[in-house]
């Protein structure tokens, strides 16, 4: 398959070299239709989330009754990735999820993250 593509490319290059008096390095350009220029603005059309909506989204995430340990860690890693100190109601929901899962290690890590985040902002 690759060999066939290379052969087609070399045949096309040889044909272009024969057609051009200057060879392969200086191909003859034929004038074509003028290119249409379109200006595009790339704005984000997404909705902006308020602080209350952000908090409610994370509280409902951690309050899911069927949350497992992996989802808890994933949610905390995502939350830690933001440049903020989580609200107490988010931390409360995360710690209650740890209690439902009987996961003491995750609860300690959540408290450590809050301690480190709080010390950086103070």
CATH architecture of the domain at 51-121: Alpha Horseshoe
Class from secondary-structure proportions: mainly alpha
Supply the number of helical segments: 5
Q: How many strands, which pairing sense, and closed or not: the largest β-sheet?
A: none
Determine the fraction of residues in helical runs and give it as a percent range: 55-70%
What series of H and E elements makes up the topology? HHHHH
Q: Low-confidence parts lasting 5 or more residues at pLDDT below 50?
A: none
Identify the overall geometry.
elongated
Protein name: Cytochrome c oxidase subunit 5A, mitochondrial
Pfam families: COX5A
Pathway: Energy metabolism; oxidative phosphorylation
GO molecular function: metal ion binding
What does this structure look like?
The protein has helices at 2-19, 51-62, 69-81, 88-101, 104-121. The chain is mainly α. It has a domain at 51-121: Cytochrome c oxidase, subunit Va/VI (Serine Threonine Protein Phosphatase 5, Tetratricopeptide repeat, Alpha Horseshoe). The protein is elongated, with a radius of gyration of 30 Å. The protein starts with a helix and ends with a helix. The mean pLDDT is 81. InterPro entries: Cyt_c_oxidase_su5A/6, Cyt_c_oxidase_su5A/6_sf.
């Amino acid at each position: 398959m690759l060999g066939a593509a290379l052969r087609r490319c070399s045949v096309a290059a040889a044909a272009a070299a024969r057609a051009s008096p200057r060879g392969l390095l200086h191909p003859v350009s034929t004038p074509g239709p003028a290119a249409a220029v379109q200006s595009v603005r790339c704005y984000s059309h997404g909705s902006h989330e308020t602080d209350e909506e952000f908090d409610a989204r994370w509280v409902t995430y951690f309050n899911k009754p069927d949350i497992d340990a992996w989802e808890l860690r994933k949610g905390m890693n995502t939350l830690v990735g933001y440049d903020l100190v989580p609200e107490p109601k988010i931390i409360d929901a995360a710690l209650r999820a740890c209690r439902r899962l009987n996961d003491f290690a995750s609860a300690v890590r959540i408290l450590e993250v809050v301690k480190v985040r709080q010390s950086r902002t103070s």
